Amino acid sequence: MPLHRKFYNRPTLTVARDLLGKRLIRQIDGAERSGIIVETEAYIGIKDSACHAHRGKTLRNAVMFGPPGHAYVYFTYGLHYLLNLVTEEEGQPAAVLIRAIEPFTGLDEMRALRRRHGKELTNGPAKLCQALSINKDFNGWDLTQGIHLWVEDFQAVQSKSILSTPRIGIGYAQKLDREALWRFLIHS
DNA sequence: CTCTCGATGTTCT
DNA sequence: GAACATCGAGAGG
Which of A25, A164, A166, A169 is close enough to A34 for a disulfide, judged by CB 3.0 to 4.6 Å? Predict the structure, then answer.
């Protein structure tokens, strides 16, 4: 069962923490590839200078302004797709970036697509998109339908085992936003 | 292992 | 024209 829209319609930091331990699933022609979410980052609204919504609504970031429970997928560095899950009520632009998953099913297909193995399959935001064949066609995709791409409950993660740090790759943001502890990982 | 650097195309100034 | 929520190859230790 896919997570309900109510799961996403909450404060982004709460959703980012709660997504740890959930299972991200990609189904294509009956074949399933999935992984357990182990690293996330929160991007919260127009006041967050690291968030794409900081400079207002554009064609690229419009999905973040829409209802929660949809995918915000964008293309960057001329090479890579990144997957975000839209949070908070419609009109509040915010999302959680999925930075890493632990491969769970469909490993053979992931290895073939990535031309890598082991940790290198899905330990980065662009790597997991490649392993799960997520591209810009999924921008705006409704994750609550339970088809093609969705998230399911899997295992509870104790707050004790969650580590938080500053976000990665946002050197362009203001100091306060650069230092915010809005990256969450499962402490191995 | 660490560090540096180039790739590549869309978006925004 | 610059910047970019990254990755992987290659060089060096």
Answer: A25
A124 touches strand C (CB under 7 A): yes
Residue A175 pLDDT: 94
**Could you check: is the Cβ of residue A50 within 7 Å of any atom of nucleic acid strand C?**
yes
Residue A9: domain span: 5-157
Q: Residue A163's pLDDT is what?
A: 96
> For position A40, which CATH number holds?
3.10.300.10
Instruction: From residue A32, give the alpha-carbon distance in Å to each of A64, A70, A107, A142, A143.
Output: 27, 20, 10, 18, 16
Contact, A100 CB vs strand C, < 7 Å: no
**Which nucleotides in chain C have some atom under 7 angstroms from a protein Cβ?**
3-8
A97 touches strand C (CB under 7 A): yes
A81 falls within a domain: yes
Q: Collect the ranges in chain A with pLDDT lower than 50.
A: none
Average pLDDT in chain A: 97
**Domain contains A174:** no
